[in-house]
Amino acid sequence: MSDARTLGDVSQRLVAAGEWWVLLVTDGFTVELPPELYRNRDRAEREGDRWAHLLSVRTGNAIERPFEGRWEIGDHWVRLVDSFLPEEWPEVWVGTYWGRDGSPEPEAALFTAVADARAWALEPAPGRLAYETHETPWSIAVTYKVRGGDEEAEVHLGKVVADLHETPDVPAAAVTLYGFEVSEGLIPQGPVMFFSRGQRDAELRRLLERELVHREWPDLVRATANGNFADDELPSDWLHWDQTQAIGWLNGFSFIGNGDDFEIRSFETGVS
């Protein structure tokens, strides 16, 4: 999987060669059709319009556009997701993780090898218990039992609806990059950069889940509140949160830390 790059890797080559527009057709909390990958956003938008029209005719439901890149036709949704994969590869797998509230995070993680895609789907994060798995040559779906409900990871072999060497959309002006930097023992590990805030926040959430395997989340929440002068913003019942609530709260701050031994700083910057 290659959705995060260090600042030193950010270049015109990455902007030009790494951007993909992923079109997902979902029915409820399931990817119903093979994901489609495009190099050009306008072409992907046209195909999104076409899928929405076909689904509207088939179901009799009207097309709603709550925001750019989303078509809602009853229980069927067409989602246009901006994602990145710098490597050129014969096949691309697309992963979606559905949380217990039905929201996907990540919505379209990209992988260049089925082994990586399979490992991503089958390796549960702490607190998740896999109890149902379904595999085909072109998809893998795993249902996890978590406190309060179920979650699901699914990966599908994508359809590249463009030649790999087709010229993609290349922004003429500066690009805004979103990143975070982890420091342990006051030693920064180097920034990790993304082309969208959503990708950055999703990766930061995964990082926090890994860190909280061997850290106590109340200590991290308490230190983060203190470091951001936000002690008064903690609700009175915060000690009764679960780990998911704690991570959601932590993700709202650009500085996360429990003292000198562990800090995360989020930021955004422009690159021309």
Overall description:
With 272 residues, the protein is α+β, with helices and mostly antiparallel strands. It has two domains: 5-160, no CATH class; 175-271, no CATH class. It has six helices and 16 strands. It has helices at residues 12-18, 41-59, 114-122, 197-211, 217-227, 243-250; strands spanning 5-6, 19-27, 30-31, 36-38, 70-73, 76-84, 93-98, 109-111, 129-136, 139-146, 149-157, 159-160, 175-184, 187-194, 255-257, 263-271. Strands 2, 3, 4, 5, 6 and 12 form a six-stranded mixed β-sheet that branches. Strand 9 and strand 10 (139-146) form a beta hairpin. Helix 5 runs parallel beside helix 6 (243-250). The protein is globular, with a radius of gyration of 20 Å. The model is unreliable at 1-16 (pLDDT under 50).
Care to give the gist of this entry?
Helix 5 runs parallel beside helix 6 (243-250). This protein is 25% helix and 35% strand. Strands 2, 3, 4, 5, 6 and 12 form a 6-stranded mixed beta sheet that branches. A 5-stranded antiparallel beta sheet has the order 1-14-13-16-15. Strands 8-7-11-10-9 form a 5-stranded antiparallel beta sheet, covered by helices on one side.
Please count the helical segments: 6
Topology as H/E string?
Answer: EHEEEHEEEEHEEEEEEHHHEE
Point out poorly predicted stretches: 1-16
Q: Please tell me how large the radius of gyration is.
A: 20 Å
What spatial form do the alpha-carbon principal axes imply? Answer: globular
